[in-house]
Write a structure and sequence with these properties.
Blueprint (H helix, E strand, L loop, with lengths): L2 H8 L4 E2 L1 E7 L10 E7 L2 E5 L4 E7 L3 H8 L2 E6 L5 H7 L16 E3 L6 E3 L4 E13 L2 E12 L8 E4 L2 E4 L2
Antiparallel strand pairs: 1-11, 2-3, 2-6, 4-5, 5-10, 6-9, 7-8, 9-10, 11-12
Length: 169
């Protein structure tokens, strides 16, 4: 089986779209302020109700993987169909800084994790890493849910299917 065959088969599995966020503290030479980091993810799921656990799959060595290896607190915003632009913005590879990416997005800073949570999301979660599992070229990060909120019930979910963002019709 080739990578292309595997990718094509898996693209037939529709997935919800989330924005995973975390706060990266400043290093001594970065100045007084750290940086908020975000990453679009479709490999996100509920793992357990008791205790409440979720899992996100991160590309090994990615900025978010490196950050969550050091920083155990993170947030998740379940994106609505009207937030496709947010998903696209944070899916870009190779960017140096996320600072400007949050500039025009409404958000609140989570009280438990300190991560940014996107306003208008269908749901938000704040998590603390419980376990990291190496899985091929990815790392599965399992987090205990510290807070779960449903700030907006308007609109449907943003989904990803056959390589494109979509909404339920």
């Amino acid at each position: 089986m080739s990578n292309d065959e595997f990718r094509a088969a898996m693209s037939r599995l529709a997935a919800g779209v989330v924005l995973v966020t975390a706060y990266e503290p400043a290093l001594a030479d970065d100045g007084p302020r750290g940086e908020d980091v975000g990453m679009t993810a479709t490999a996100f799921m509920s793992v357990s109700l008791d205790p409440p656990l979720v899992m996100v799959s991160l590309r090994e060595g990615s900025r978010m993987d490196d950050l969550l290896d050091e920083q155990p607190l993170w947030g998740v915003s379940v994106l609505s169909e009207s937030q496709r632009h947010i998903a696209g913005r944070f899916a870009m590879k190779g960017r140096i800084s996320d600072r400007l990416l949050f500039e025009d997005i409404p958000y609140v800073r989570g009280e438990a994790a300190g991560a940014l949570l996107v306003g208008g999301s269908l749901a938000t979660l704040e998590c603390r890493t419980e376990q990291r599992v190496s899985a091929g070229d990815h790392v599965l990060v399992i987090g205990r849910v510290l807070t779960a909120r449903v700030p907006s019930s308007d609109g449907g979910p943003l989904t990803y299917f056959k390589g494109r963002y979509r909404h339920l019709g």
